[in-house]
Every structure is written in C-alpha cells, then in structure tokens.
Amino acid sequence: MLHTFQPGQLLLDKYRVERVLGAGGMGMVIAARHLALDELVAIKFMLGGGSQADLTRFVREARAAVRLRSQHVARVLDVAALEDGTPYMVLEHLNGSDLAHMLRERGPLPVSEAVDAILQACEAIAEAHSIGIVHRDIKPANLFLTRGADGSPCIKVLDFGIAKWSASTAKMDASQPMGSAPYMAPEQFAATNQVDPRTDVWALGATLFDLLTGKTPFHRDDVDSIQALMHAVLLRDPMRPRMLRADLPEALEAVLLRCLDKDQAARFPSVAKLAAALVPFGSEHASLYAKRVARVLGEAETSARAVASSEVERTAPVPQLVVATAPLPQFEDDSAEGTALQTAAPVSRKDRRVPLVAGLVIAVAVGGIFLGMRLGRGTAASPSTATEMLEVRTPPPLEQPSDIATGAPITVSAAPVTSTAAASVADTPARVEVPPSTASQARTVQPPRRVVPAAPVGTPSSTSSPKENLYGRRR
C-alpha cells in the first residue's frame, strides 16, 4: 500500500508529522512529534507490501537495536503497525547527516576525524558482538554523525536489519549474499556460513578506506558491475591507500590492508584489536574510545605499541629453528634412524648417579694408567738397557717385603723390554711365581701403600727364586 505523509498529519492519535527525512523503494522515514511527550522522534515505515523476509528483517533491526545500550546506537522506542498492517518503528530523532553524505559534500576526511568516527563505531559493534550479533552492513551511509550534549561529535550506527544472530530462531536465507557489495567481505559472497565478527572488521576497514580516500578498496575503471566487483573482492588485491592519498602514514595503510586480508585468520581478531591499532592516528580522545571498546568485549587493554609489534611479527618471516648436530649414522632399517631434535624426558635422581659413578671409575683407571707410565719411564736406565727388574717394597717397619703368613720375600719380575718399548713398560703383563707352600695364604696380603722402582740389575738368571704377585696368583 502506498502511503503519503503530509506535515501536520496525525498518526495513531499521538504522532504529528513534521517532515519527510528520507524515502526508498522499501520504506520511508519521517520526523514526527510525540504529542504527549512533546518530543521529536523518527518513524520508519516498511512500505510496498514487502515479503515475509522483508518483515523479518524489519523486526530483526528493531530487536537488535533495542538490546544495545551504547550511546553509539540509535535507540528504538517502539515497534508496531498501522491500522492497515504497515509495520513501523519509532526511533530517537538524530540531527546531523550520515558519513556518505559528508563524503559527497566535503570529499575525503582528515585522518584524525575519520579514525575517530571508526573508533566510535567500534564501540557499538563491540557491544553487538558481545551478545552474538554481526552487523553485516557497515558502510558510510549507516554511520550517522550527530552531536552530543556538549557539542562533541557522536557517531550512531544504523540499520541492523540484516544482522546475523548467533542464537536466533528466525534465520535469514544463508545462501543469499547480504550487504552492500563495495564493503562486503569475501565470505559474504562465497561462504555465508563463515560470517563472524571478523566480517565486520573487514567492513570497518573498507569504510575507513573510503572516508580517507573517497574511493572504495576495489574501485577500478574495469569494475563496473556487481559481478566484476565480486570477482575483484574474491581474487584481486585491494588498492593501496597511499596510491590515492600520499600523505597517509604507512602504518595506517598497514592497518587498512590487514582489515582487508582475504584470510579471516589474518585480520584483526576483534574490533578491540583494531581500535587499539588505530589509536595513534586519532585525536586526543582516541585512547579513551579504544579502552571502552576493550572493556565492552572484556578484553585486556592493548597498547598501540603492542599492536604494532604484533603486526611486525605477523608480517615478518618466521625464523626457522636450526639445530647443529653431528651427522646421524646411516642405518639399513630406516626405522632405526634417530631425529635431530627430540623432547628431553625427565631424568631421575638414580639415572643422574649412574654417569657420575662411571665418570669416577674412568678417572681412577686413567690415573692408574698414567702412574704406570710414569713408573715405566723411571725404570729405564738408558736407551741401551735390554732388561730390568721391578721390586715392590712395603713401607717400614719391615726390612724386606714378605708374605705375612710365612715371611717369604715377595718379588715381581717384569718381562724384558726394548728401548723402543720403554714407554709402555707399565702395560707389559708381569710373570709371578708363588711357592706352593704359601699360595693359599698369599691372598690375604694387602696392597702396598707405595711402589718404588728398583735399580736395573741386568739380565735375571734362570736360577732365580720363585716370584709371586701381590695377590699370590700364579702366572
């Protein structure tokens, strides 16, 4: 049904029409005064006998807006229908204009002004995300600039009509792309079931791109249709903002391009992280805006420096771990090959004692060998010495070493060595002869406290008395 509204017309016995604010194919917005409250309001009508989906969208917008308490969302005061069934929504009246109108009138905005507008929008979007609502239609036309009580600029986010609700029973048609094409993320075209808060991060970046340059990210001469635009969003890189506006900081360009990354995981994970990254480019109020956004989402406040550091880490190549090890041995069975880097298992106290004891044993053995070599070098009288005799003596008070049980003298005869083998005399096995009468008792003899090399005595005769070692074992 076609409706015409004239100034002074009375609606529902409580609203008096003052003027038409705007009209489109599906609806109209008028300014009217509430007679009982003497307050100016805006009334939005859905006209033309829309489908059930249009009605669902209309009611969805009202329900989403009424749940949000942010000062950056236009308040919904009432939802009802006229006598003929035309749905309407009563909202707070806003004085000002949307950012799309400002762009047409002024051209690209100053950096701090554009950034502040996006930061304020982030607060409203953060509250929506906190209760499971994704806007899906952020663009300059849906950001309305008005003034607060103190005259400071205040952005209001409009039109939650196609918002995605995470726990809604009234589902929109997920197979149909929804939104405004120049600001839509790739997943809104190709994978609508993957729409999530990062979809709004893309749209906020695309909107800021437009506010700063006067162009949308994929605007080109050859992109002259929805199909061409969709192809560009899905397959082509966005334009670099500094090519359109050279005075933009490089760091701000990096923020915009990260918002417009086709990979959702590569974008800012939340509007709070985006707000923190934008703080250095806003006004003196930018930090306050970012803190509010973080508190709304329950996230820890992130400094701009930390966000910049994470941006460097994200774009820098990941260093490869290089482990310097000796070449691994080759095995016939591939399963026996080891890896160069493994996770160390916990070492028990018992396991730690084993290497210590082994080390002590090795140290004692090396010391014995070294002492033997020293003894061997000390007994060599001259290079021409062909043979030598080692005599083992016990310390005083005994005059002559003997078996404790029998008193028989104990001497050890070494095998002949040549001058070229003098250094290894300690390694030459000794021949020990023990008298039969004392063999069983000689095992009780204790080792001597010191070993004194005897002076060379020449070649031993074949009639030498029997010799035995310290432990009485016959060789």
Automatic annotation (TrEMBL):
Residues spanning the membrane: 354-373
Annotated ATP binding sites: 44
SMART domains for the chain: S_TKc (SM00220)
Compositionally biased region (Low complexity): 441-457
Coiled-coil stretches: none
Pfam families hit by this protein: Pkinase
UniProtKB keywords: ATP-binding, Kinase, Membrane, Nucleotide-binding, Transferase, Transmembrane, Transmembrane helix
InterPro entries attached to this UniProt entry: Kinase-like_dom_sf, Prot_kinase_dom, Protein_kinase_ATP_BS, Ser/Thr_kinase_AS
UniProt domain Protein kinase: residue ranges: 15-288
Region Disordered: start-end pairs: 421-475
PANTHER family from the UniProt entry: MITOGEN-ACTIVATED PROTEIN KINASE KINASE KINASE 20-RELATED, SERINE_THREONINE-PROTEIN KINASE NEKL-3
The name this protein goes by in its record: Protein kinase
